[in-house]
Every structure is written in C-alpha cells, then in structure tokens.
Design a protein that fits this description.
Blueprint: H1 2-19, H2 23-26, H3 29-34, E1 45-62, E2 70-83, E3 91-97, E4 106-110, H4 125-129, E5 132-137, E6 153-155, E7 158-159, H5 161-186, E8 196-202, H6 204-215, E9 222-226, H7 232-238, H8 241-249, H9 255-269, H10 283-289, E10 299-302, H11 328-334, E11 344-347, H12 350-361, E12 386-389, E13 394-397, H13 401-411, H14 427-440, H15 453-457, E14 461-467, H16 475-489, H17 495-503, E15 506-511, H18 532-542, E16 549-550, E17 557-558, E18 564-568, E19 573-577, H19 580-585
Parallel strand pairs: 4-5, 4-8, 8-9, 9-14, 14-15
Antiparallel strand pairs: 1-2, 2-3, 3-5, 6-7, 10-11, 12-13, 16-17, 18-19
Helix pairs in contact: 5-6, 7-14, 8-12
Bound molecules: 2-acetamido-2-deoxy-beta-D-glucopyranose (7 copies) and calcium ion.
Residues 53, 55, 76, 78, 94, 120-121, 124 line the site of one 2-acetamido-2-deoxy-beta-D-glucopyranose.
C-alpha cells in the first residue's frame, strides 16, 4: 500500500516537473500579463498591463567583480506602473527571469551608483545567476538611464519630493514588493512555500539596501551591502573637504606630488600587516605609526599626460567599466575628463604634506570641533585632486563633481550640475552644509536609522563590506554605523558581548587594500569579495554564518570586524587579531553637532 502511494506521488511530481513552462513559453507578454501582481500588493499603484515587454535572451555570458561568471538564458521583462495620486507618474521596472528549472524560489533586488538608482545590466545578472528573479527600477525618473538629478527640481528653488522619496527608499520598496509576488505568480509557488528575498548593491546601491533594511523589516531575508553612501548629508559634502583644505591653506599640490605621497605611504605601511605584498591591510596601523612628514623632500617626476577620463571615477558605480551600463556620454557629462598635465618633477613639499595631513585628518570646524570622519591612510587622494592651468602654468582648484553638484543643486536648489566657485567657502560652511543636508534629507537620504530590532526579529541577515582603502566613501563611515547600531541596540553591554549579539544578524568586513566597490589599482592584487550574494544566501537558507569572507585577489580571506588581519610566519599565515589601539583609531567623536549623528 505504502509502496503504491509512493509511486503515485513520484508520478505526480514527475508530471508537475514536466508541466513546467519553458523559458520561451514564459517569455511572452501574455504569459507575463497573467502573472502580474494583484493591485492590492502595493496600495496606491496601478500596473499598466499593456506596457509589458519581454525579450528572451538565450545565452548570455556574465562576468563581474561582484558575482561569479556564468552563461545562462533569461527572460527580460519590463513593465510600468503609476502612483494613483501623482499626475503624469510612470515608473518602469525590469525583472530578469531564470528558466523554471533554474529558479530556486528566490527574488533579488539590485541597486545603483552615484546618482543612478540602477546599474543597468551590470548588477542585475547577479540574481539570475543565483536562481532568482532579479529586478531593477527606474525610480519613475523617465527612463532606466535617467538619473535622479535630472528630475530633482520642479523649478529652481522647488524640490521634487516625489522623485526624492522614490530615490531615497520608496522605489526599491515597490520594486521588491512587486518582484516577490511576480516571482511567485510566474513559477506557481504555492502559498505554503517561501520565496526568499535578497538585496545586493554597492555605494549608492549600498545606501539603497540599508534604506530598505532600516524601514521594511520583512522585505529582505538577506542583504549584501558594499560601501554604502549613507550618512548622506555628510557624505556628499565630504567630497569637498580636499578642495577647501587646499583653498584654505592656499596650496594646490601638483598631481605628481600627491601620487608620490600616496606611493611612499603605501610603501612605508605595506609591511605593518606582517607581509610585504604591496597591500596595506592595516590602514589603522599606518595611521598610528607612519609619520607622513617623512615624505618631505622626496623627489618625484611624472611624464606629461593628455588628460585622462577619470576612471575609476569618484562616487562610483558598482561595476563601472567605462563602456558598461551607463552611456559614456552621460558619465562624461557628470565627470568631465581631467585637465591635461605637463611633465612634472620636483620634491615633496612641506605645504603638500600639510594639505594631505589636514585632508586625512578630516573636517574640523573653525573651533576645532570634529564635523566628519575621514579616509584611511594609504588611499590615493582622489578627492584632493587639483587642476593644471596651461595658460598660467599653475596648479589650482578642481572642484569635486559629486560634492559640487550636491552643494549647487541639492542644497542651493540651482539647476546646475556644478558649483561655479568655492569663493568664501570655509570649513564652517562645509559643516553648515552637512547640517542642512542631514536636516533636509533626514527622512529620505540620510539612511542611518540605527535600530534594527525589527529586522533582526524577522530573521534578516546583513553582510556589509567596505574597501579599507576606499577613497570616495570613507571606510570608517561603515564602522560608525556598525557602532551606532551596536550602542543603540545593546546599550550598557560590554563590547564583546554586544558584538556577539550583532554577529547573529549583522556582520561587517573591511576588505584589505580595496578601493571603492572594487580592488584598487594603486595596490595591485588587492582583493574584492565576488560571491557576497551567495554568502548571504547560505547564511539565510542554511544557517552558515560567515566567519570570514572569501574574496578574489592576492588575499582570499577577509577578517570579520572588529578583528583585524595580521600575517605571521613570514607572511604565510593570516590571523584575525583583536587590537584595541587599532579599533580606537576608527572611532570619531563628532562634537561639532548638537544632535546625534549615527
Ligand atoms: C503555472 O501554472 C499555470 C496553470 O497551470 C501553467 O499554465 C504555467 O505554465 C505554470 N507556470 C510554470 C512556470 O510552469
Ligand atoms: C550558447 O553559447 C555557446 C558558446 O558561445 C554555444 O556553443 C551554444 O551553441 C550557445 N547556445 C545557444 C542556445 O545559443
Ligand atoms: C530589457 O528589455 C528592454 C526592452 O523591452 C530593453 O530596453 C532593456 O534594455 C532591457 N533591459 C536590460 C537590463 O537588459
Ligand atoms: C534645467 O536645465 C536644463 C538644461 O540645462 C533644462 O533642460 C531643464 O529643463 C531645467 N530644469 C528646470 C527644472 O529648470
Ligand atoms: C609634521 O610637521 C608639521 C609641520 O612642521 C608639524 O606641525 C607636525 O607636528 C608634524 N607631524 C608629526 C607627526 O611629526
Ligand atoms: C528599537 O525598536 C524596538 C522595536 O520597534 C523597540 O521596542 C525599542 O524600544 C527600540 N529601541 C530604541 C533604543 O529605540
Ligand atoms: C574581546 O574578545 C577578543 C577576541 O575576539 C579578546 O581578545 C579580548 O580580550 C576580549 N575583550 C574582553 C574585554 O574580554
Ligand atoms: Ca602588506
């Protein structure tokens, strides 16, 4: 009897399997229309069923630093919806569907970079590779290539709050809510089966991930978040600190001098981690032990250059090859080529070192109170770049693109993508701009709400990682948020006890030598973790909490914060050590503010 029942069950399973629609069958507008989420899934929106477009891609090959290489077929589905109470509103979402055989009951949202809310087709493959329906949104900005800055102003002086809320958090909430239900409907997942839901993004994409985890406790089971551009009010203004240091100290270091100081720092600090491999794995020991004054007098020389396209560019797209997802023309407009530089030779000056020291110390107001944290020692000084003027034969200010646009458009509400001058701008001005940004965009962009109790209770897991030599978003920005969560959720607990509690659902990894959302050309071989989505999936679905993070590069194991890497046995054995003085060097007291800055 039992044997017979079993045969029947197997037969039924077999029939069910055989009945799975092929990718070709799924990938038609009519099949997709029948699976669109019901109106009630996201209150207040209406999906336009006639907008559905499908494209079958039989055999695509993917490779990236943020997911494993793969060749597979998928169906690209795009449709539009609108918010009922917003006249003229139209939001597009794209979902890539794997074949029914490859679908593993998973949904993945992917994020953007810089002022873009998506990364086109460069991040979205990550989900399909993991057997998930994978989504991107255009935020309602007009097209997948339209960035938030293009729609930010209704007119000069008037903020488009709908677009700002969408960029801040709402578009991703809708993308994921629709995407999860869409996946269920397409593959006939029964109500008693879970569709796991994940997020992956870096830089602005990392901020977008946190915007969801902080607000929507049940939305994602796991999130792989790199170098988040959060604490937005401070972060965007921080891009101008280098410029204002130079202006205040009236010294504009030639590019070759800056390069030389960076190179000498790397050379001096490389070995502090126990292994001379060209990678500064312990930027904290570099900060504690390296006296940058020793570079004064070192000779430098550089050949003339014709004016490079600024890659890796500041502010960052997650996987930014120049010919990647965003049209070059669009990037070029926001990040114009650097001025050509002449042949240079000289020696490192005391003025140059003073500028770099102030830059690395971070923003203090005129009363010496700290307004923001800073980058790690060993970085290349992207945010302190100067420009050569061939007419005057002099080096001068090169206003940082992201910082300049932030001040001009988002703070002063002018319809311009650059700040014409920094005339009259002091350290105090920068601090005031930070306060203004934090206040004005506190509920949309700041993204540092530190109470993750509900997310933890819902069983969610966050894996956060940040290049330790990130020259765009200071690595300590991630450490500060970790500390804010720790002290908010576990007040009064001993450090180790609260770290152990956080470990259950939130783990932070600093990636030695890595730059902004990738390895760092100034430290060849610097690693970057390529399988973070797979790692967080394993954590959520199998309970395999990552002790260390695996990475691609000359270092394949990344220590988990607060433990720090140290090599022994002549650089052959990696230890993850506890070192109080190093930990203390990551913590800043922001005493320039009267309110908490998480
Ligand atoms: C889901 O079920 C419907 C109705 O039985 C069927 O037409 C469709 O092919 C199924 N979907 C998949 C992906 O197999
Ligand atoms: C997929 O690509 C591989 C290698 O390029 C090729 O051999 C194969 O025929 C392709 N399959 C389809 C269905 O296009
Ligand atoms: C998906 O297909 C649409 C056409 O429907 C196309 O415009 C878009 O570029 C594709 N999106 C991606 C991310 O491949
Ligand atoms: C801003 O300027 C651009 C041209 O630079 C123009 O296309 C756009 O309409 C202007 N927007 C507003 C809100 O004035
Ligand atoms: C570096 O030199 C400056 C200027 O002479 C001095 O103020 C500073 O204390 C020196 N720093 C160190 C660490 O010696
Ligand atoms: C954090 O959130 C939880 C759940 O909403 C709440 O019970 C707790 O009081 C909050 N803690 C703080 C410090 O706000
Ligand atoms: C905290 O844990 C580390 C190991 O992770 C250990 O070395 C250190 O001594 C502990 N500190 C305290 C105060 O127990
Ligand atoms: Ca080293």
């Amino acid at each position: 009897m039992a044997a017979k029942l079993r045969t029947v069950a197997v037969a039924a399973l077999f029939t069910a399997a055989a009945a799975k629609a092929s990718l070709r069958e799924i990938c038609t507008p009519s099949f997709v229309r029948a699976a669109l989420p019901a109106r009630s899934i996201v209150p207040g929106i209406t999906i336009d069923a006639s907008s559905v477009e499908t494209t079958l891609v039989a055999n695509a090959s993917f490779s990236s630093n943020s997911y494993p290489s793969a060749t597979l077929g998928y169906c690209n589905v795009t449709f539009a919806y609108s918010h009922d109470n917003v006249p003229g509103d139209l939001v597009h979402v794209t979902y890539w569907l794997p074949s029914a055989c490859q679908f593993q009951n998973r949904y993945v949202s992917t994020g953007g970079g810089g002022l873009a809310i998506n990364s086109g087709n460069s991040a979205i493959p990550s989900g399909v590779i993991a057997g998930a329906v994978s989504g991107i949104t255009d935020g309602g900005f007009g097209s997948f290539n339209t960035m938030w800055n293009k729609v930010f102003l209704q007119q000069e002086g008037v903020i488009n709050w709908q677009a700002t809320r969408m960029f801040g958090y709402q578009a991703h909430h809708e993308l994921a809510t629709l995407g999860k239900q869409f996946a269920r409907n397409i593959y006939n997942v029964t109500d008693n089966k879970k569709v796991y839901s994940y997020y992956q993004g870096c830089s602005e994409g990392g901020r977008e991930g946190w915007s969801q985890v902080q607000r929507f406790a049940n939305q994602f089971d796991g999130a792989a978040i790199g170098a988040p551009a959060f604490r937005y009010g401070q972060q965007q203004v921080n891009h101008l600190v280098g410029n204002v240091v130079e202006q205040t100290m009236r010294y504009f270091p030639p590019s070759c001098e800056l390069e030389k100081i960076a190179k000498l720092t790397i050379a001096a600090c490389d070995g502090l981690d126990g292994r001379a491999d060209g990678i500064v794995s312990r930027s904290d020991l570099c900060k504690l032990h390296f006296n940058i004054n020793t570079t004064i007098g070192a000779p430098y020389s550089c050949e003339a250059s014709s004016g490079a396209f600024p890659f890796p560019f500041p502010g960052g797209l997650p996987d930014g090859p120049p010919d990647g997802p965003l049209p070059r023309s669009r990037i070029r407009r926001q990040f114009p080529p650097q001025n050509p530089t002449p042949a240079q030779s000289g020696t490192v000056t005391a003025e140059g070192v003073a500028v770099v020291s102030a830059f690395l110390n971070g923003l203090l107001d005129s009363q010496g109170r700290r307004a923001y944290i800073s980058w790690q020692h060993g970085i290349i000084f992207d945010d302190a770049k100067t420009a050569y003027n061939a007419d005057t034969n002099k080096w001068g200010l090169s206003i940082n693109g992201l910082g300049g646009e932030w001040a001009a458009r988002f703070l002063q509400l002018k319809n311009t993508s650059s700040l014409a001058s920094l005339g009259g701008v002091t350290y105090d001005t920068l601090k005031e701009w930070m306060v203004l940004g934090m206040n004005r965009y506190g509920d949309t962009l700041q993204t540092t709400y530190p109470n993750l109790t509900e997310f933890r209770s819902a069983g969610g897991k966050v894996l956060q990682f940040h290049g330790e030599q990130d020259n765009s978003i200071p690595t300590a920005a991630s450490v500060r948020y970790y500390e804010s969560v720790r002290t908010t959720m576990y007040p009064g607990q001993a450090f180790n006890q609260s770290v152990a509690a956080l470990d259950e659902f939130y783990r932070l990894f600093l990636v030695p030598g890595a730059g902004h959302c990738g390895s760092n050309s100034a430290q060849p071989g610097s690693p970057w973790p390529q399988t973070t989505l797979q790692t967080v999936i394993d954590w959520v679905e199998k309970g395999n909490a990552p002790e260390t993070l695996s990475a691609k590069g000359a270092i394949d194991t990344i220590c988990r914060w607060p433990l720090r890497p140290m090599w022994s046995a002549r650089g052959t054995v990696l230890n993850c050590e506890y070192h109080q003085a190093s930990l203390d060097s990551w913590v800043y007291e922001l005493d320039a503010y009267d309110v908490p800055v998480y």
